[in-house]
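Field reference: sequence -> structure
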Amino acid sequence: MCGIVGIVGTTLVNQVIFDALTVLQHRGQDAAGMVTTHNGKLFLRKDNGAVSEVFRTRHMKKLLGNVGIGHARYPTAGTSSSAEAQPFYVNSPYGISLAHNGNLTNTKQLAKEIFESDLRHINTTSDSEVLLNILAHELHQEGKLVPTPGDIFNSLERVYDRIQGGYAVVSLITGYGLLAFRDPDGIRPLIYGSKQTANGTEYMVASESVALDAAGFKIERDISPGEAVFIDENRNIHFKQCTPAKVARPCLFEYVYFARPDTVIDSISVYKARINMGEKLAEKIEQEWVDHDIDVVIPIPDTSRTAALQIAQRLNIPFREGLVKNRYIGRTFIMPGQAVREKSVRQKLNPVPFEFKDKVVLLVDDSIVRGTTSKEIIEMAREAGARKVYIASAAPEVRYPNVYGIDMPAVEELIAHGREADEICQLIGADKLIFQNLDDLIEACIDEKHSDVREFDSSVFDGQYITGNIDDEYLESLQQARNDSNKTNVEVQAASDMMQPF
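Structure field:
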């Protein structure tokens, strides 16, 4: 999962992009990058690390221009090389930069086409570089010295015909403007807003509405599935449905875990959805644990806090902050390597013994993926004196890999794959374990008053891949790439494969 932003402003946009990427930092801490343009020249800074580490004053001073794009990355292919940092750039035609959130599921086929038919060279293992070259090739096919918005949209229609998967994209076409577009199913989020200034209207597109809020932009609307927006350098805005619209099916995991609670995705409040998740889960606890002896509800910070508060309120049980978080440790879910994750859990969270000693504790988490965090925290709770430790997950069992841009582990590393709740409970060392029902999770996210969305990408829970092009061969190759024990060798081989004729 990554965070993207693009701005067409009336003054320098480097600080606004920096602030937006900081707001979107939760979507990736592996690398960050920014491209701006001024008088037909591009200015690029990208590297490994958090936003505040990548951009220093000396870098910001060189990022000139009132149009730019930015990216905060975590590695969807398991790599953490600065060569994979975005945005990517190609010089022909025009000079195009691109930043991407999501995953193309036909990258291997596209890379072959690019080499054999488009005669283009790919230098990394990133599907974002592949996507950039596809876009560049199709723009070149228009053959225009000065492309119109219609030319750009025509080329993008052919891009949509070639690529598959879940994606949200911002692209800077040097000297012409900002292009942004979203996958036909609306799996990955993309929203735009505007701001009135003394010099005219400015526009911003971003992964989450909070980036617009922080910059003082008025939220206009989400980019529709299969829709593109082009904002030229004179700040004229153009829209085009570039591929037949499908039923919007955003990723459920955005609402469960990835997005900030103050974000609104496809007119659905993430915060309200998480309140509803807590309400649904509390109802299930009341039904299945009729004579429960829970003394206290404690969230596993931070994403589960909203649901945990609602559970405590519904069950009329005290809510306590029993785990203190070190905010300088990244998300353990996306850290590479099991040993690193296990160590990081202890560094990230520390129990308050007073809230655990001699109590029956209900820990609430947003989801259970590998089980690493849950097992470590349960052990910490017992060491702090808890009499019993129960755990509730606001999401159902994660049984299947994600193929649309979330670097979930290989199937064999998913603790729920091929296991039922009782076995998972035993493996993580809990006294009791309860998961949200998938139907309840979907219902929790539906907002009939404000949003038309009624369906979601729930593939990590039910194994139903909505793009319809995922087969066993693809899942096997994905498993090999994501397996912790194989990642290093796979990355070296993948890089080597990219350098060889197909």
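Note: Confidence is low (pLDDT under 50) at residues 488-502.
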